[in-house]
Specification:
There is one protein chain. It is built from six helices and 20 strands. It starts with 5 loop residues before the first helix and ends with a strand. The chain is globular. With 402 residues, the chain is an alpha+beta fold.
Length: 402
């Protein structure tokens, strides 16, 4: 395999993609900033529904409308009797009545198939003592299976570093002929930088809704490019979670780390408005707490997913900081596998004596011929990893035995 200079390759690809906007408006979608009545467009669904989950017998249903609305999810175990009703969690006594909806279905039965549909009722006018409703829209009845955290096996696929190339999502997922996925994992840098809602919808949300996300959940960790741009601070609203998570599914304990930006906080493009060093310190504290938890210790396998790998990512500031903070903890916690992206060079790095005591799998980059899909299957006895490129050829494999 031809060797490349890691930093030079990434710098050439990302040239022109490092511009960062100002602080931005913290909540440009604040409720009722202007009356829906003043907007003559027909009330409609922008995108959705799409599912995310940290499992544990709950599922988050998300969707976006073009106007403020009162919204909820109707669901049940019978497609013809959606008798349960769930709203987004209220805040200070207020139910959410906006455009971006995140409704969590709680206390689901392990292994049970559920049927659901989204409902949004347009808020046509909002006065201090009178609220006028307009059109009501109902989605089609969809379905998902609530995974059992105690199931014997788990399978998922990882995509990373698609960089505003939405066509890569169906292409890569189409290479997975088995199509046996409990969830799909996006390991950062789905975008070059954050511009607006339309970019999020067209370059990620609509493709995943079209492909799988109405019935199969996805998990997503932010990459360093999702920290950039004028819309980066609004970006998390559109997801159940894009940062730190930890959950148990099947024989594995999964830990999702947000590795932040790869440049120093003082870099001119950030104009003094970021603090990723301290943020990574906080992530390390969460990891340290996690490796001492009963759930982590009793798991058959322990898998960490993080965009910037803890090693083999060059000498950028963020990469070195990740290595210094996370590698000792993951060695101490006896992590079995780390899945990463970021470098745009697919690699399988076995454990290295005195360095990383676990294998590190790094997915490829966005260009044709270098894109990868990483398939992972975890049983009670082993973890099997297979990485295939965009031609369908296996370009990396690794097995971790119990």
């Amino acid at each position: 395999m031809k060797k490349h200079n890691l930093n030079t390759d990434r710098r050439n690809f990302l040239k022109g993609g490092l511009m960062v906007g100002g602080l931005g408006v913290l909540n440009p979608l604040s409720l009722f900033a202007s009356s829906n009545k003043e907007n003559n467009a027909a009330f409609e669904l922008v995108v959705g529904p799409y599912l995310q989950s940290d499992f544990g017998n709950k599922m988050t249903v998300l969707w976006i409308t073009n106007k403020d609305a009162a919204s909820w999810v109707e669901y049940g175990v019978d497609a013809n009797q959606l008798t349960e009703k769930a709203f987004e969690e209220s805040s200070m006594g207020f139910k959410t009545a906006g455009r971006i909806n995140r409704v969590v279905l709680h206390n689901l039965i392990p292994g049970q198939k559920y049927y659901y549909r989204i409902v949004s009722k347009e808020i046509e006018d909002f006065q201090p003592y009178k609220l006028t409703y307009g059109t009501e829209i109902k989605g089609q009845t969809e379905q998902f299976t609530n995974l059992d955290s105690a199931q014997k096996e788990v399978s998922f696929v990882m995509l990373n570093d698609t960089h505003d190339r939405p066509e890569s999502i169906p292409h890569l997922l189409g290479l997975d002929k088995d199509n046996q996925r409990d969830f799909i994992f996006f390991n950062g840098d789905v975008f070059n930088y954050q511009t607006d809602e339309a970019q999020i919808v067209s370059n990620m949300l609509q493709p995943v809704v079209n492909l799988f996300a109405k019935s199969v959940p996805f998990v997503y960790v932010r990459g360093n490019h999702e920290t950039r741009g004028k819309f980066a601070r609004e970006f998390p609203q559109y997801f159940h979670e894009v940062g730190y998570e930890a959950f148990t599914l099947g024989p594995a304990r999964f830990v999702i780390l947000d590795t932040g930006e790869d440049k120093e906080d003082e870099h001119p493009v950030y104009a003094g408005i970021v603090d990723f060093d301290q943020y990574r310190v906080q992530q390390a504290a969460l990891l340290e707490k996690e490796i001492n938890s009963p759930a982590f210790k009793k798991a058959t396998f322990r898998i960490v997913m993080m965009h910037i790998p803890p090693r083999y990512a060059g000498d950028w500031h963020g990469s070195a900081h990740c290595r210094d903070l996370f590698e000792p903890l993951m060695n101490k916690g006896k992590v079995d596998l780390v899945l990463s992206g970021h470098t745009h060079q697919y690699r399988v790095h076995p454990p290295a004596k005195g360095l990383n005591s676990y294998p590190i799998i790094i997915g490829g980059g966005p260009k044709d011929g270098n894109r990868t899909l990483t398939r992972v299957h975890v049983s009670q006895r082993q973890i099997q990893v297979s990485m295939i490129d965009d031609s369908g050829k296996e370009v990396g494999a690794y097995t971790v035995n119990k």
